[in-house]
Amino acid sequence: MTDPSYRLPRQVVPRHYRLRMEPDLDTATFAGSEVVTLDVAEATDRVELNAAELQIDQARFVRGNARAHAEVEYDEERQRAILQVSEPLSAGRWEFHCRFTGILNDQLRGFYLSTFDDDDGTRQVIATTQFEATDARRAFPCWDEPDFKASFGVTLVVPEDLMAVSNGAEIERESLGDGRVAITFADTIVMSTYLVAFVVGPFEATPPIDVNGVPLRIVAPRGKMRLTGFALECSRFCLEYLATYYGIPYPGDKVDMVAIPDFAFGAMENLGCITYRESALLVDDELATSAEKMRILDVIGHELAHMWFGDLVTMKWWNGIWLNEAFATFMEMKATDAFRPGWKRWLEFAAAERPWAFKTDELAGTRPVEFEVRSPAQAEGMFDGITYGKGSAVLRMMEQYVGEEPFRAGVESYLRRHAYGNTETRDLWESLDGSSGRPVGEIMDTWILQGGYPQLTVRAEEGGVSLEQGRFLLIADPSDTSTWKVPVRLRGMAGGDPFETSVLVEGSRVTVPLGGSVDWVIANAGGHGFYRTRYDEPLMQALVDRLNLLDPVERFVLVDDAWTFVEAGRSGVSGFVSLASAFRDEQEQAVWGSLLGAIASIGHHLVTASTRPRYERWVAGLLAPLADQLGWAPAAAETDLVRRLPGRGWGGGAPCPPPPPAAGGGGAPAAEETDLVRRLRGRVIDSLGRLANLPEVVEQARSIHERRVAKPTSVDPEVAGAVISVCAAHGDAETYETFLDRYQTVSNPQESLKYLRALASFDAEDAVDRTFELIVDRTVRNQDTSWVLARMLANRTTGPYAWSKLRDRLDGILEIVPPMTQSRIADGFPALSHPEVAADVTDFLAENPLPHAAKAVEQKLERLSALVKMRQRETGAIAGALPE
Ligand SMILES: [Zn+2]
């Protein structure tokens, strides 16, 4: 199954590491020593282990009085140290002793440096680790494969004024008399090397709170304690929720959640020492949008879910990483939904994570969720939308199919059976088969081991409906005959009676009797199925006429599927324009998110200078009822701002009526608005300003932004997010400099991120030049470079210019971008759908591949070619589709 040349020999197995690490933050180097207790299965004079960019000295094997010296050779390509032992080691238990030195790099992997400016503007330095997938070997010599589980006893030698955190609780502290202190941490449980962590720097921690006997703290760079409250609240809830769900106590002895200023991923589930990108942990509760807070809650839930699923029970090899990540993503939704039901997390899941997976999985260049992983580089490529999005979506589909409690019980039995061990995917299916009495493994194999997903075509038949499945591809391939075992939930009305039923579609076509002729049917009831649904014309019309009978998630699915059929050339854009008009009374922000996403795509790919005025009027008209209803601020808010948004009868270009007094929109103050209504307001303002380009909205956005700079809490956070985005889209050089100053000076990571996002969204070539400068001179942290580039490429007007800049300086840019974030650059490619630009992108990348993102580039270029076709097909049609 796996290429043996990438796997270490198995005759020597580590059991315990005693590690002592001495980082020198000034010289960006470290020294260390280790004593590894080993079991030697058969006598050998050659031992292989992993090491990269390490110098190993004084290597020897010790057993009682026996000593065997070892010569070290390095195999750089396979990142190994080969120890030639002076006399063969006999079978049995040995200790391996060595000293080693290495560098604290700036590549956000292994043992690396991160920096931040404190409140006095002084540059502060942190040394921290990121080992997943295969970078523990950059910090200490080790058997760096997930099934070489061992316990770890860590000592960190650090300057007295710095704080040090590792996986275990601190148990001993010894002053060395030279300004340094040796801090020893309790031994960990047996676990994989990729979960070990050390963090050293000028940190502070919240006082520990007790969660069922587990001390929990938030650790942050000095000066940021005021941003830790929300994370603490979320962590306490999730830790309790998860222990209850799993039916198993937390496996470590403490939990520290550590915010790191430079971090490649969102967070990392090191047992007991979870590291986070700052913006995924620290937040100012008063200034943050609900989406920003939800992201923090999500990430915390996700990482804590890993403490059991991933840390306590671990995949045998990297081909199983999908299950680790998919399951943690699934659990993050459950925890978030339990903590904040008002955020409707599963609806948001259908609207965000599922489409993320669809967008890759509808390409010929997709991959199966689980595939053979041989080299570490291939493991790198698994952290994508297929692993997180599709993996968690099919788990959710399965949970809904077998029932929530049987599913939970299967998970608990799996964790109990394999605690402290390693597993293959089928071990989970066995537990779920047992707990549910259904063939979970058989069904899941069709979703996990083959790429792609089905379209279900629904037709009215005599006394029921027929369901036909076939692979959905953005660029159709009639020769593809893949099928899936599809759990389908149907809901609707037949012969005048309501029905709700489930069916497992296995062949290419089934007929489902419904006891009468069908009045209407929704064939992905609850929206949990990982497939698209295509209705025959009368059934589709029946749904459009009854939108009020559908759940929000079902309405979302209807819109999302309809737009995808336009992208794929199965329907024309005019049909979508009239469908969108049927949603004028829609109130659910996630449904509007989908509508506005499609409408933005129309504006980006299909609308030309001559059709843009009509497009803008159409968008403004579509949003008019909501604009009237929501205004510029929550009804209950104490504000002197004008509440009234341009609404009905404005249609863009209409003369500006005098603003009504504050607290407009109906007189009496309304009840407290939900977070999702507030979020919807943000979407509406953003779309009126950036898609409809209403001058009065732009002007008002500028004035609100000025007020907010003067007094941040004076503006609702959702409105604030929207006005920043609108100001950037219509901003000049002066606005750019103001935003840059905000980006650099605000100490709150969410605020800083809002402005960085905005800096990458100006519609001017000068701004693109400036942002490139900021990347090259490292004003933009390299953790953010990839997505900033993608955002510039995705700009409708300046994207092609940004592409030409990127193309001309790609080599220099790639030196800055951390390798594991490279694939995110490719997210910007599909936006470049002008045929001549697209051809240039494709040709250039064929000659100049992104070395760490081959698969992602292949996929995004396939999507790009589909969007070029859509542009060519539908640009003419849009003129006739938009109302006059
Ligand atoms: Zn994860």
Your description of this structure?
Helices cover 39% and strands 22% of the residues. The protein is built from 26 helices and 29 strands. It has a 10-stranded mixed sheet, with no helix packed on it. The chain is globular, with a radius of gyration of 28 Å. Mean pLDDT is 93; it is low at 648-670. The chain binds zinc ion (ZN). Zinc ion binds next to helix 2 and helix 3.
Could you outline the blueprint of secondary structure elements for this entry?
Elements: E1 12-24, E2 29-40, E3 44-50, E4 54-63, E5 66-75, E6 80-89, E7 92-103, E8 110-117, E9 123-130, E10 151-159, E11 163-166, E12 170-175, E13 180-185, E14 198-201, E15 203-205, E16 209-211, E17 214-221, H1 229-246, E18 255-260, E19 267-268, E20 273-277, H2 290-308, E21 314-315, H3 321-339, H4 345-351, H5 353-361, H6 376-380, H7 385-402, H8 404-418, E22 422-423, H9 425-436, H10 440-448, E23 454-461, E24 464-471, E25 486-494, E26 497-505, E27 509-513, E28 518-522, E29 532-535, H11 537-544, H12 552-567, H13 573-581, H14 589-606, H15 612-630, H16 675-690, H17 695-710, H18 717-729, H19 733-745, H20 749-759, H21 765-776, H22 785-793, H23 799-808, H24 810-816, H25 835-847, H26 854-881
Parallel strand pairs: 1-10, 17-18, 18-20, 21-22, 23-29
Antiparallel strand pairs: 1-2, 2-7, 3-6, 4-5, 4-7, 5-6, 8-9, 9-14, 10-13, 11-14, 12-13, 15-17, 16-17, 19-20, 23-24, 24-27, 25-26, 25-28
The structure holds zinc ion.
